[in-house]
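Please fill in the sequence for the structure shown.

STRUCTURE ENCODING:
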């Protein structure tokens, strides 16, 4: 299988965007645009590695936007987009991939399926690269003095180019090296990597993308309602066993017994984990952390909830609210409620006011009423990019 590295270009300043930060670091749905773009490529199985090119001096912005993503160090960009891409390609040249996907950091809505289709087209025999794009649908007019219409321009065979633009690595690197020697006027005409490749005589094909893969250009582009809300439920139960404390919501609560389970048996975090996994159709906790696997024996359940939250983030989504109800006769949850809220919020990476912890009894009925164990039911609400 051919290897493909994503080279995300985030070195621009976005003069039309305005605002205190370059557009790639502005928040979109509570997350930096660049992070959402990276997460889109992390979700694409066609991509084996991701490298980002940033402007010199943007290291702190980049670090904040990519915290926890475990990416290689960013590549310093140049004075033009073409030079920034060349810098990125040169950084990859020591251990080159078969293909490279050049993508604008300000296009966070690209879908994994579109990336895969573009790579498939670029991989075809006799083809050097492929460009995601949209066929023109609007009527085109050429205008002259005082905006007077002079003619209609046939739109047949005209496309709007998007990114990613995916190329065989070696020919594209050679094309960019050749373009680097051009004069300023000729270099300015090379507005994207396809233009650089075309100048070098490479064969490029178009792949139809979607209107959703739009580019953030102005601050108004951040206000599109592109998210959908999903809600899912989780339930868990654990019986009592000998011990002197129970884990609830990541907090050790003193009690005359412990909860039995393969991990630390935190019934609240287990229910929340299942609820979060349910919002993205990712199965249940047993699928990701099977009790038959000895590595999870005695494991802290905060790892489970954090993993589920990370999966939501990788889909470009965010957790909106978590609600858990703990059902037991004892121990009393009230004295520990605030600590549980803080703990769950920290684990899931949300603000405490997005977490609710409640408790109830079954009025002496059932196994919880007989003090044989503790149950928990949870509801998770997330926002995800609309598909």
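FILLED IN BY: designer on duty
SEQUENCE:
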């Amino acid at each position: 299988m051919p290897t493909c590295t994503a080279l995300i270009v985030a070195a621009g300043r976005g003069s039309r965007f305005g605002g205190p930060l370059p557009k790639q670091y502005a928040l979109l749905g509570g997350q930096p645009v660049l992070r959402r773009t990276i997460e889109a490529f992390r979700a694409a199985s066609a991509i084996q590695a991701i490298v980002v090119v940033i402007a010199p001096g943007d290291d702190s912005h980049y670090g904040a936007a990519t915290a926890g993503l475990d990416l290689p160090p960013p590549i310093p960009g140049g004075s033009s987009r073409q030079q920034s891409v060349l810098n990125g390609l040169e950084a990859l040249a020591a251990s080159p991939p078969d293909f490279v996907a050049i993508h604008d950091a300000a296009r966070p809505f690209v879908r994994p399926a579109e990336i895969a289709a573009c790579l498939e087209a670029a991989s075809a025999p006799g083809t050097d690269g492929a460009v995601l794009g949209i066929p023109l649908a609007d009527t085109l007019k050429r205008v002259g003095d005082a905006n007077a219409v002079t003619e209609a321009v046939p739109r047949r065979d005209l496309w709007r180019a998007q990114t990613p633009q995916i190329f065989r690595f070696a020919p594209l690197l050679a094309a960019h090296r050749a373009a680097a020697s051009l004069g300023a006027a000729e270099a300015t005409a090379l507005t994207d990597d396809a233009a650089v490749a075309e100048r070098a005589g490479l064969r490029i094909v178009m792949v139809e993308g979607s209107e959703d893969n739009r580019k953030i250009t102005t601050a108004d582009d951040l206000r599109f309602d592109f998210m959908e809300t999903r809600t899912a439920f989780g339930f868990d139960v654990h019986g009592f066993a000998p011990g002197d404390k129970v884990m609830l919501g990541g907090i050790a609560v003193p009690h005359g017994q412990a909860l039995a389970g393969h991990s630390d048996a935190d019934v609240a975090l287990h229910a929340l984990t299942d609820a979060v996994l349910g919002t993205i159709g990712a199965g249940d906790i047993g699928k990701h952390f099977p009790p038959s696997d000895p590595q999870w024996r005695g494991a802290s359940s905060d790892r489970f909830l954090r993993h589920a939250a990370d999966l939501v983030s990788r889909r470009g989504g965010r957790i909106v609210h978590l609600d858990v109800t703990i059902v037991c006769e004892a121990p009393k949850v009230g004295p520990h409620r605030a600590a549980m809220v803080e703990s769950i919020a920290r684990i899931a990476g949300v603000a405490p006011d997005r977490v609710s912890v409640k408790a109830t009894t079954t009025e002496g009925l059932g196994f919880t009423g007989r003090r044989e164990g503790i149950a928990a039911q949870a509801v998770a609400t997330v926002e995800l990019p609309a598909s």
